[in-house]
Amino acid sequence: MSTTLSIHKPVRDKEKFLIFGSPLIGEGEIEEVVASLTSGWLGTGPKVARFEDEFRAYKGAPHAAAVNSCTAALHLSLLAAGLKPGDEVLTTAMTFCATVNAIIHAGATPVIVDVDPKTMNMDPERARAKIGPRTKAILPVHFAGRPCDMDALCGLAERHGLALIEDCAHAIETEYKGRKAGTFGDFGCFSFYVTKNIVTGEGGMVLARKPEDNARIKTLALHGMSQDAWKRFSDEGYKHYQVVEPGFKYNMMDLQAAIGIHQLKRIDACWEARRRIWALYNEAFAGLPLGLPAPVEPDTRHAYHLYTILVDEARTGVSRDEFLRRMNAENIGVGVHYLAIPEHPYYRKTYGWMPESYPHATRVGRQSVSLPISAKLTEQDAADVVAAVKKALGA
Ligand SMILES: *Cc1c(COP(=O)(O)O)cnc(C)c1O
After folding, report:
1. Is the Cβ atom of 71 under 6 angstroms away from ligand 1?
2. What distance in Å separates the CA atoms of residue 395 and residue 102, rounded to the nearest whole number?
3. Which of 16, 92, 239, 311 is the most buried (most CB within 10 A)?
4. 139 CA to centre of ligand 1 in angstroms
5. Beta carbon of 87 within 6 Å of any ligand 1 atom
6. Are 392 and 318 in contact (CB under 8 A)?
7. How far does residue 331's CA lie from ligand 1's centre (Å)?
8. What is the pLDDT of residue 8?
9. Residue 242: pLDDT above 50?
10. Whose CA is nearest to atom 5 of ligand 1?
11. How much distance in Å is there from the Cα of 338 to the middle of ligand 1?
């Protein structure tokens, strides 16, 4: 019996595997990190203060508190919102698990809301239907960098006296009707994780509206010690600190801020680079049997954090998971953002959430594929992604 060996020639060579979400790191970051190392001040210090100030200025916010992740930012914001056990917090069924876990760790009860199938953001009408006597806060996520319907959500928060906490992990550059994401509510929480639009390795930021919330978050982020305790070893002489409540170890390091300061300087250029890739993908995929991101709504700014396509097996003849496997075989890194929250066993078991009760989030989670859209991508990289998508679809 003779066999024909078909040699698979991938779109990219194995050694050139396109890593999903690989960050663009410049000389500025490298020199600043080395300078921090040489100075001997690695931990929380003047560079964190500078990064807070520059980020605050970029967002036009009154206060900023740097922390070591967006998860920490969410946790501290929920604590500062004064939630008590039994209080309910509305959030979206289409988010990263950290959003929901932060609510649980703050001692409150998460209540998830299905998304609008076009925007993939929390559906305000469905959110309204879930508001009850125990609802104390609402925690929307600007999914992929597309702003939520903030007129509707702010209206809900106001009418029902709810704290508003924005998960802006995807939404550093996002704007809605001229206003920046993270400045609508009581707290805006940002991530500088390695795949996000600004990276510090691990890192996060809280923009609190009220000065007392900002102060509480800074205290809680460093063991509950009285403020500016990080200066206790400075050349101003040893200073005693006082613990005013049991806090956490959520402070950002100067080593991380050193990276962030230079990332922030390039934010607009990187946004523009991602916007171009977004437009290139839209054009290249227009005739394919894929679900593409909805157009950017008028009077908004999309952060272009994720470019997600929907692979519906009924239309493509290829399952989502097979599509993921094929992209990987072409040496293109892809992601899934996200399996809907009720797909995870812990939440199903603990809260009784069923995927079929959140049909839009569940369908998105089962069909979604995130393609690389980092500012680091060259034109050739983007062309390789397009070629691999077409090949994976058998088009
Ligand atoms: C990444 C992410 C987080 C968590 O951010 P970390 O900085 O990794 O803690 C929270 N919410 C969403 C929507 C995210 O994408």
Report:
1. yes
2. 43
3. 92
4. 13
5. no
6. yes
7. 26
8. 81
9. yes
10. 70
11. 12
Per-residue confidence at 246, pLDDT binned at 50, 70, 90?
very high
Does ligand 1 come within 6 angstroms of the Cβ of 99?
yes
Write out the two tokens for 378: 């060259």
pLDDT digits (tens, 9 = 90+) for 86-108: 999 999 999 999 999 999 999 99
pTM score:
0.96
For the question of residue 210 being annotated catalytic, the response is no
The CB of 303 under 6 Å from ligand 1? The reply is no
Domains detected in the chain: 2-20+267-393 (3.90.1150.10), 27-265 (3.40.640.10)
Atom 8 of ligand 1, residue of closest alpha carbon: 193
166 C-beta closer than 6 A to ligand 1: no
Cα of 190 to ligand 1 centre, how many Å?
8
Q: Is pLDDT at 333 greater than 80 in this prediction?
A: yes
